Structure formats: structure tokens, C-alpha cells
Amino acid sequence: MSRLFGEVHRQVQDEQDTRKLADRIEEIACKTEIDADAKGFIESLDMFFLSTVDHNGRPTVSYKGGLPGFVKVMDAQTLIFPFYNGNGMQLSVGNMIGNADIGMLFIAFDKPHRIRLQGVSSVSRDPAWLSLYQEAEFVVKVTLSELWQNCPRYIHRYTRESHSRYVPGEQCQTPLAEWKRFEFMQDVLSESDAKKAQAAGFIQVEDWVEKIKAGAPDV
């Protein structure tokens, strides 16, 4: 019995004469534990892509970034990652509370290398979990279903210029997102963000747009 393929996958595989190839790849690559190599790769990264499903059954994908090691492998079946201050829509968090099944894509553009992971999520605000991350608003625990390494041949090579200045760190104060400093946003911000905006000073949308056009980093 395949863990990955259903009837429709089998139909397409048979049409393309790739069923045997697909079975061999699943046999070799599909894992139900996070081994030392996968742990090392996952914890070396500063970003991943998260796939969740909303209340209408629609899939969505979002980018999650942090400092290297912000995704922590706790054991062979479990990993965790933080949610930092965001835009307030809580789409990914809400989706995971409503449907715990998620997908994660870990990818390195300088190697290149990638791992796909499927698991069951649990969103927590437990102080013990939050204490593992500076300024985390939530911590997500993921129980592994399957993971597998993908062929890297179509991954383009890129190099990192810098980490985002908005990722919480111990060496500096985390700045507020600049768009939260627009005056017309002040009446809808959380109390804590409103205080930060007041302290940092308001900015004009036109100035922010010009910075983007000029290619200013981390606006």
C-alpha cells in the first residue's frame, strides 16, 4: 500500500508509464522519521514554505522566515516553529486550528537541496513553548506523517544577501513593520502595536512606496 499515491495518481502514472518509477522513489525516499541528515538540513535553514487548507477547502501557501534553527526538530517524529508578529489576518494559524493537516517545503537555493514534509499541526500559546522563541505569538508543533527528498535539478541557485531585520533577535530591538506606522492604520492596530507605532512615529504611504520603488531592503 502506498502512503503517497491514490487512484488518480495511479491513473496518471499508468498513462505516462511511470508507476514503477514512482514506487521505487517512494520506496527509497519516503520516510516516517526525521533522521540526522534531515534534522541537520531543516535546522540549518532560515525559511520554509507552509501549506495549509482553509475553511472552504482551498489550499494556501505562505513563506515563513526566521534565523537559522528557528524550526527545531524535537525528536524523530516532532518539530516546532514560531509565528512572529504578522498582519493580523491569522490565515495560517486559523487554517491549522480548523484543519491540522499541513505541508512544509524546506529548500536551500545555494546547495541546491529540498525536503517535503507532511504532518499534523497543533497551535499552542503554552508559555513553555513560547519561551523557546523571542517574541513568538504562537508556536506550532508538527507531528510527522511523511517526508521525502525531492530531485533538486530545477532549483535555481541564489545566494542570501542578509537576514531580515524584522526577525526577533537578542542583539537588537525588533522594529515594527513600517506599514503599521501609517496613520490610517492606527485605529485597527492591537494596543501593543499602536504603542510601538506612536513611539516610532507615523510615516506617509507615498514615502513608503518610494522606498519600495528604490529597492530599499526590509521596508
From TrEMBL:
Domain Pyridoxamine 5'-phosphate oxidase N-terminal: 36-128
Cited Pfam families: PNPOx_N
Highest rank taxon of the organism: Bacteria
Protein name: Pyridoxamine 5'-phosphate oxidase N-terminal domain-containing protein
Organism: Methylophilus rhizosphaerae
